[in-house]
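Hello K.,

You asked for the raw outputs rather than the summary table, so here they are, unedited. I folded two proteins back to back in the same session to keep the settings identical. This is the first:
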Amino acid sequence: MLKFVKHHMESITGIEIYPLISLLIFFLFFVVLFYWVFTAKKEYINTVSNIPLDNQNDLKL
């Protein structure tokens, strides 16, 4: 089964660029994510991390 898929993919011209594009997108996404994490303000991180623990916004039934 794998030989059939591999042989079929090799017959498509220009397909070798798609793994490179997907790797580049994956790498850029995580670089931007790490940049955002390290440059985010501590006040914002604390505010967002306390949202699930905030009982003032709960609806009383």
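The second followed immediately with the same parameters:
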Amino acid sequence: MKNRITLLAAISLGLIATPALADHHGHHGNMLHKCLKAASKLKEGYYAKVEYLSLTDKGGKAYEIEIKDPDGVEWEVMCSLHHAEVMELEREVASASDPLFSRRMKVDEKTASETALAIYPGKLVHTEYEIEPDGTPSYEFDIWSRPGVTFKIEVSAETGAITEYNVEAWDIGREEED
């Protein structure tokens, strides 16, 4: 709760002053507040991170809100900036060996990352293991390309196909590490 209040207060009061956040006062700030509220209705817990994304495969902009629930489970809520509506809810697991991930995994992490890097070259800086709403496991790779350009690429662990690709404009918070 403390992280949630601190993040909301810092954004609302403009205490986080960066060029990336400059356009998130007014309408955008209101949409962020609505997205945080919508995410809280789906999952109780604290906000670990908020990312502002350009949805290159769907068009538009979105916030990806990471919530850690009281049981320690991490969730990602994708919320449309245009309507402040939840677009997707994914569960994160700690590794590819988690039973929720491994039972349907047919493509290993190395092969999946090579697929992502072949199309989106750069430095692989972070990997997440996600369970999609339909139960499909996927890898989410953060690939740093150049200053201001970090690609977020999802690759299905069942098929090896790229299922989602976005560009992260900014983030607040930090990745949870075990």
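The radius of gyration is 16 Å.

Happy to rerun anything if the numbers look odd on your end.

Regards,
P.
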